[in-house]
Amino acid sequence: MVNNIPAGNLQLCAAVLFTGSSFRQISKFLGAFNIQGLSEQCFYRHQAKLLIPTVNWQWKLEQDDLIREALESGSVTLGGDMRADSPGHSAKYGSYTMMNLTCNKVIDIQLVQSNEVGNSVRMEKEGFVRSLTMLEERGVNVEAIVTDRHTGVQKFLREERKEISHYFDPWHMGKGIGKKVDELGKRKSTQDAGQWRKSLVNHLYWSASTSSSGQEAVAKWTSVANHMQNVHTHDNVLFPQCLHGPLVGEGSRVWLKLSTAACERLTDILLAPRFVKDVEKISPVYHTSTLEAFHSLIIRFSPKSVGFSFKGMFARLQVAALHYNENANRSHATTVEGVLRYAIVYPKYKHGDYTVRALKTKPTSFYIDKLMALLFDSVVEDPLLYQEHSEKVPVPEPLCAQYERPDKQDAVSRHRTRFFKKT
User: Fold this and answer.
1) What is the pLDDT of residue 421?
2) pLDDT tens digit string along 13-64?
3) Is the pLDDT of residue 88 over 70?
4) Residue 63 belongs to what H/E stretch?
5) Tens digit of each residue's pLDDT (9 = 90 or more) over 217-240
6) Which of 54, 58, 225, 254 lies most in the core, judged by the most C-beta atoms within 10 Å?
7) What is the reported pLDDT for 252?
8) Based on the domain organization, do 270 and 301 belong to the same domain?
9) Residue 309 lies in a domain
10) Are 185 and 247 in a shared domain?
């Protein structure tokens, strides 16, 4: 017994939440072995009173350390992106993650419910504003931010935070271009354009990483419209000609002919005014690919097929952040002889093509030991402090309308009214 609570029950409940498991799955597992477990009400009671306050407090300690490191570094470059809790455009929750790209650590997470801002489309801007405001209030000097091309975030930084440099993630921009080129490749009249997809995405990355200014990145990017027509000199002083040698034999390409449907439509996509304007702000150094990796990790702790309460969802996001920060900078795995290990994988976005990926050392979970120690050494013994901290998290109104049951007196009055009407 721990403070009049069966220790086994509390340990089982803590293991379920701290590892990102589900009570129903664990209950089925115990039932398959015919092992007596605890009730669902008992689990959610311990989760609300003890487990969630423990996670909130441990994340507070982690966040305080990360902010202290950011203050010592002077200025930081942040990366931000939102993840919806369900596929499609009808999400209930939107979790906005702010990551310190300098050290590859999640520094803040904001959870927004759609009815707080009117609809699910506005959740990303709200989460971004909340996170940036909190970090600035803590004294963090934000030098630059890398995000996707969300219009609400662009407008906010352009009007409210002019001193912060705003960059766009090349992965998101390359993904958008790739989808449009794939659509051209599916049509008979423009199928030759589809063969340029990989080269165009690579050229976008190269334009960003090898340019010293946004104007130079634009000059290099717009040159591809001439290059794919086998024209390698350009009317731009910043990039007058291509840097490659003669492309003959195996180095030749399927060149597009001028005035053909494939050439004209692909050129319209590549030189669209809005896209070219955004290329000028493409990030030359930092990307948000690590944010995408963190969003993939969140699925292990809060699957999109399962619904959670607001505090339950927030706690699982914090556990996921603790796991990511502990394993963010793992070293390269080696064999017994000391040879670096690699693996060949076939990502979905490669459409059957492969890529070589460096294998990392096995992830650790020491954060679970810290959570368990905090729970049994402090929270169970004196839960008031931790519960008060957990209650500071504002919980929005329920998303759906709730039926309000009338009190007993009103029910009796309505019954008497119906009785007298009948008589």
Assistant:
1) 45
2) 999 999 999 898 899 999 999 988 888 899 999 999 999 999 999 999 999 9
3) no
4) helix 52-73
5) 999 999 999 999 989 899 889 999
6) 54
7) 64
8) no
9) yes
10) yes
108 bridge partner residues: 98
Average pLDDT in the 175-179 region? 91
Domain of residue 216, residue span? 170-279
Going by C-alpha positions, the residue among 58, 90, 157, 96 that lies closest to residue 370 is 58
The DSSP secondary-structure symbol of 41 reads H
Domain of residue 321, CATH code: 3.30.420.10
> What pLDDT, on a 0 to 100 scale, did the predictor assign at position 251?
55
Helix, strand, coil percent values for the chain (each to nearest 5): 55, 15, 35
CB count within 10 Å of CB 191 equals: 13
Query: Is the residue at 349 inside a domain?
Result: no
Give the count of alpha carbons within 13 A of 344, CB side only: 3
Q: Are residues 323 and 257 in the same domain?
A: no
How many residues can be counted in the chain?
Answer: 423
Whether residue 18 is found in the same domain as residue 154: yes
Query: Rounded CA gap, 58 and 325, in Å?
Result: 13
164 and 175, same domain (yes or no): no
Domain membership of residue 1 (yes or no) is: no
User: How many domains, in total, are found in the chain?
Assistant: 2
How far is Cα 48 from Cα 5, in angstroms, rounded to an integer? 15
- Triad 208, 214, 220: Cα angle to 5°: 55
- Claim: this prediction has a pTM higher than 0.70: yes
Q: In what order do the strands lie in the sheet with 76-84?
A: 105-113, 93-100, 76-84, 142-147, 165-168
Give the C-alpha distances (Å, rounded to integers) separating 310 from 179, 222, 313, 377, 386: 34, 46, 5, 27, 18
* Same structural domain, 273 and 315: no
